[in-house]
User: Which sequence fits this backbone?
């Protein structure tokens, strides 16, 4: 993953230019995870992400949203527009434990360099899942 | 084919409002298609909307009011050929200026029917957003045919009145409707204002 090398947004004034990170990765849970385990991982992600963005000078969250999709296609979704509020989560998983999943995440914030944002998101997921994250797109 | 553009800043509730409007339109026997625009290379909302049974065309990696503007017309032509919809609902990224989305559409698709812009205002974050990204918020509200102040279930009556006063100062005769897409409050009134 590289930060955007081309302008994706010509009309936004420089003082309000957002940093954007959108990517997907295959992730594995240390042990088969039920919805409660996925929710715990997402909660840990938001805690780490919020702290990292705050320290980096983030002054506005556009959105932080994503999905964790099981191999069968069912998924767990999350969404937030604040650094410290509890995210809105929707459990659409089928109920059986999952060992691996596809993580998709889309984060738009203001006040943070795009490369720094990528590092913070990657680090927050690595903490939440206790595993290395390799973004694929 | 008619066009409804649902604009509004990131996190204002555009997708939930879209689904509520779509549900009501489908219940009235109308055929719909949806265009979802995400500024990043990975979309989230498109799949979510698709699971509600709606045909979705996604435009990734830019903003349809500027860098992806030329692709909107091709996308609308494709949807018309494939689904012959009564309405296409376009959800631009929350950073888009909706007036710039519809300008080329009117020029390049002269046979298009009604075009409407619904701008969603986030009642919870209005004050902060105006302070930080005021030109964009103003452009989104000014382009609207209808403004929906969303998340009224999360603010006090006084806070809602303050937001409504601010919005009314930006628009002239544009209808302003207070809604909660999450609870359904005000949605019937909003549908009446759009259609």
Assistant:
């Amino acid at each position: 993953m590289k930060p955007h090398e081309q302008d994706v947004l010509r009309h936004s004034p420089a003082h309000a230019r957002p940093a954007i990170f959108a990517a997907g990765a295959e992730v594995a849970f240390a042990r088969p995870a039920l919805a409660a385990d996925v929710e715990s991982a997402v909660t840990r992600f938001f805690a780490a992400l919020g702290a990292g963005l705050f320290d980096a000078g983030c002054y506005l969250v556009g959105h932080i949203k994503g999905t964790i999709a099981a191999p069968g296609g069912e998924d767990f979704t999350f969404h937030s527009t604040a650094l410290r509020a509890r995210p809105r989560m929707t459990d659409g998983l089928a109920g059986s434990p999952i060992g691996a999943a596809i993580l998709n995440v889309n984060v738009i914030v203001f006040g943070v360099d795009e490369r720094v944002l990528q590092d913070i998101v990657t680090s927050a997921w690595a903490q939440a899942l206790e595993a290395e994250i390799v973004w694929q797109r | 084919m008619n066009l409804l553009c649902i604009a509004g800043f990131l996190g204002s509730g555009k997708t939930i409002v879209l689904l509520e409007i779509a549900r009501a339109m489908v219940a009235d026997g109308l055929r719909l298609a949806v265009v979802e625009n995400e500024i990043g290379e990975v979309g989230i909302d498109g799949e979510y909307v698709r699971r509600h049974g709606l045909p979705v065309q996604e435009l990734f990696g830019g903003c349809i009011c500027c860098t992806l503007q030329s692709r909107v017309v091709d996308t609308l032509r494709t949807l018309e050929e494939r689904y012959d919809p009564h309405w296409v609902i376009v959800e631009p990224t929350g950073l888009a200026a909706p007036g710039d989305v519809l300008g080329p559409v009117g020029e390049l698709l002269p046979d298009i029917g009604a075009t409407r812009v619904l701008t969603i205002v986030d009642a919870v974050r209005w004050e902060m957003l105006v302070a930080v990204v005021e030109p964009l918020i103003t452009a989104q509200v000014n382009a609207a045919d209808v403004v929906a102040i969303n998340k009224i279930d999360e603010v006090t009556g006084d806070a809602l009145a303050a937001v409504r006063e601010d919005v009314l100062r930006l628009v002239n005769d544009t209808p302003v409707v207070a809604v909660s897409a999450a609870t359904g409050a005000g949605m019937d009134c909003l549908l009446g204002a759009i259609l």
In short: Chain A has a mean pLDDT of 89.
